[in-house]
Amino acid sequence: MKSKRYNKGRGAQKKVYNQFSAHQHELRDDFLNYLEKEGESITTHQTTFIETFPKTIVNKVTSPDVGMQYSLNPYQGCEHGCVYCYARNSHEYWGYGAGLDFESKILVKKNAPELLEKKLKNRNWKAYPIALSGNTDCYQPIEKKLKITRKLLEIFLKYRHPVGIITKNALIQRDIDILSELSKNNLVSVFLSITTLSEETRRILEPRTASIQKRLDTLKKLNDNGIPTNVMMAPIIPSINSHEILELSKEISARGAKSIGYTIVRLNGAIGQIFTQWLETTLPDRKDKILHQIMDCHQGKLNDSQFGQRMKGSGKIAEQIHQLFAIARQKYFPVKNSSKLNCDVHESYKDGQLKLF
Hints:
Blueprint lengths: L32 H5 L10 E4 L6 E3 L9 E3 L2 E2 L23 H5 E4 L3 H10 L8 E3 L10 H4 L1 H11 L4 E5 L8 H9 L3 E6 L5 H7 L6 H13 L4 E8 L8 H10 L5 E5 L6 H12 L4 H10 L19 H17 L25
Parallel strand pairs: 1-5, 3-6, 6-7, 7-8, 8-9, 9-10
Antiparallel strand pairs: 2-3, 4-5
Helix pairs in contact: 3-5, 5-6, 9-12
């Protein structure tokens, strides 16, 4: 049973102290009207969009266990408000908090397309897949208006450069025209995040994301259009969505998913406090059980930072989860699909057009 203190429409339930700054401030709002129409009480934690002007946009990923070498994030902070999001901690480096600030103060990089084109034209750059949304979702709600991600995809297509996309928003359907063209040369791979089949779980865990049905429909539509799409069931949270592994695998396989991946939740940095507060207001009767089971996956702690183990976990519960995914893959994904993208055609397009030989 939810507490009366539950902050609907937000993942984090409170502002969290920024370890780098004691000074926080509030800005303006333009969201949550749908909650008001339904007669639900909401708090007025305002959403603000702040323009930033970075000098570079493609980031080298140094972590050896995340499956990518380069990432690009057109937005910092994310309105989706997923309470477990590992990217929350990065907001502190911008002077904000990892709690409500992360989902209500969104930094926008409008010059991202220009910076990407400059990078791809550089004669010293060797093509390698660049992941959109290595940190925060490139298809969060404001993208519908700003279209920065769409402009980035146009640049990737122009220079025939491989790109990976990670998202949980059905808005990606808007760009099927570009994605289909990229797919013709094996230049794109999409990872759709689907963590549960329960809409009630989705509403409290990922409050501003697309509904589960919309995500399932998106999965089918992308695959029907020849765009290779995989699913990430990440994170697995014991006693919240861990029981859905086989059922969810069956549903996504039926809609054409090429594979399924997962991580076990880890509550590093400020996320431990944020997640605990969330449990107190959303699932107070299950709080202790959930926290203890998460700790069982990380050697008695809420987080394990050891590369190679931090996202897979250890212990009996983690092993049970691993075995369930092994069964799911054997049953629903018996054919292994290569996700290696084409890095060979980019060199001919560095000048924006096919070079004559």
